[in-house]
Amino acid sequence: MSKPEFIYVTYIETTPEKLWEALTSSEFSRKYWFGTELQSNWKIGSSFALVTNGVTSDVGEVLEFDRPRRLSYTFNHILRDDLRNAEPTKVVFTLEPHGHLVKLTLTHEGFAGADKLRNAISAGWPAILSSLKSLLETGNPLAIPRAALGKEVQSS
Amino acid sequence: MSKPEFIYVTYIETTPEKLWQALTDGDFTERYWFAHRAASDWNVGSNYHFTLDGEKRLEGKVLISDPPRKLAYSWNGCSEEVRRERTSRVTFDLEPRGTVVKLTMTHDDLDEAGVTFRGIAEGWPMVLASLKSFLENGQILDIPRPIAAKEAVSV
């Protein structure tokens, strides 16, 4: 049986405010998210989109925006037929101060019956969040080749 | 019913050789693994252990040693709380990805009802986040020790 959710925890030497900025700014996201821009006005109920080189891959709706503690949006892949899901999935970021660090917990849920989509995001998130951690701690994102993620997350 | 496993993937700007050293050399583990010091010759079949302040906290046997690609060992916590739990297994896979190394840590053969399973699910993200910072910045993460030491590997 497939697991219904994907959870990833990391610890980053930064402030909740800077991490929040990185999670919501397209300027930042381009650097650590394989060139992808996050597009939204971040009002609850507003639309949300992931756009890479002008191509929209995922769309959703902002569910929670509690700066700098909790961010949540729905997530629907629209680019590839084999990764489309009948129901939107849900992404939640929780930011908790932890000493001088921030504990970041990502939960992505709602994959019942969508194993391919779950496999794709399970390959993608560790790379994206590793690069985000490097960017915030060293000033430089990781140069992970997109091809390294495997064919399941490459745009067709 | 399948036994639970915990998988954690991270990407680190380093070389497989440096990452291998960081995983196996006590002088390195002591710095990022919340003062836990590894000791072994890391040959297949050899014993290894981790000590904290000179006290053995974790021990087992080396199962796979293929530097700098794959390392696996059996995992027995030494504390009173966990010493009767089943022996679990930890595997590290190191794969070069451009200028970055993909590290996959798999901890399996766990006891679902055990303290170890809960402890390692909290502990590995801390240890591996600290390892990544150590290799990329030369700095360890200042994760509050009482929390880290309790949850990381001393379970």
Summarize the structure.
The complex is a heterodimer of chains A (156) and B (155). Chain A contains three helices and seven strands; from the N terminus they run E-H-H-E-E-E-E-E-E-H.
Quick tags:
heterodimer; A: 156 residues; alpha+beta; Alpha-D-Glucose-1,6-Bisphosphate, Chain A, domain 4; 7-stranded antiparallel β-sheet; 3 helices; globular; B: alpha+beta; 7 strands; 30% helix
**CATH class membership of chain A:** Alpha Beta
Secondary structure: number of strands of chain B:
7
The chain-level mean pLDDT of chain B equals 90
Helical stretch tally of chain A: 3
- Flag low-confidence runs of chain A: none
Give the low-pLDDT segments of chain B: none
- Describe the oligomeric state of these chains in a short phrase: heterodimer
Largest interface here, residues on each chain?
Answer: A-B, 24 and 25 residues
Terminus-to-terminus distance of chain A: 28 Å
Tell me about the largest β-sheet of chain A: 7 strands, antiparallel
CATH architecture group name of chain B: 2-Layer Sandwich
The H-and-E topology of chain B, N to C, reads as: EHHEEEEEEHH
Topology:
The complex is a heterodimer of chains A (156) and B (155).
Chain A: E1 5-12, H1 16-24, H2 26-32, E2 36-39, E3 47-52, E4 55-66, E5 70-77, E6 89-98, E7 101-109, H3 115-138
Antiparallel strand pairs in A: 1-7, 2-3, 3-4, 4-5, 5-6, 6-7
Helix pairs in contact in A: 1-2
Chain B: E1 6-12, H1 16-24, H2 26-32, E2 36-39, E3 47-52, E4 55-66, E5 70-77, E6 88-97, E7 100-108, H3 115-137, H4 145-151
Antiparallel strand pairs in B: 1-7, 2-3, 3-4, 4-5, 5-6, 6-7
Helix pairs in contact in B: 1-2
